């Protein structure tokens, strides 16, 4: 199995990951009903995020924390939501890729989810 080496690899990973998320009734409503994402519009944006995170290239310019703070204000993001998201992320990555960047993206996903959980549960003064 090959490693994640290009933006095209990230596109494959993100499409499969979101396909899995959108089939999971415990979390899909956050993307469809609460966030109201259009998958075809969202995929290039989320791929930009991971391209910046893994390869330090790409055009992601949004504040990912601010996006999730807004989402959390509409629907409380729970530990279970984060666990489900991470499970699908890891399983999808493992089903498609193997290598240093595959490990790096899973570690980054865990780190990002952990930081978000902390920030979303801490009142901002």
UniProtKB/TrEMBL annotation:
User: CDD domains of this UniProt entry?
Assistant: TrHb3_P
Q: Which GO terms describe its molecular function?
A: heme binding; oxygen binding
Source domain of life is: Bacteria
Record-linked InterPro entries: Globin-like_sf (IPR009050), Globin/Proto (IPR012292)
SUPFAM superfamilies attached here?
A: Globin-like
Q: By what name is this protein known?
A: Group III truncated hemoglobin
| Native organism | Flavobacterium cerinum
Q: Kindly list the organism's lineage.
A: Bacteria, Pseudomonadati, Bacteroidota, Flavobacteriia, Flavobacteriales
């Amino acid at each position: 199995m090959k490693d994640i080496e290009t933006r095209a690899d990230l596109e494959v990973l993100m499409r499969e990951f979101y396909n899995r998320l959108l089939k999971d009734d415990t979390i899909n409503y956050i993307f469809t009903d609460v966030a109201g994402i259009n998958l075809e519009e969202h995929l290039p944006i989320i791929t930009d995020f991971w391209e910046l995170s893994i390869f330090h290239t790409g055009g992601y310019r949004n504040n990912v924390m601010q996006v999730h703070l807004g989402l959390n204000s509409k629907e409380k993001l729970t530990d279970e939501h984060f666990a489900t998201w991470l499970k699908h992320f890891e399983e999808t990555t493992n089903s498609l890729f193997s290598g240093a960047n595959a490990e790096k993206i899973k570690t980054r996903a865990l780190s990002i989810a952990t930081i978000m959980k902390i920030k979303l549960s801490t009142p901002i003064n």
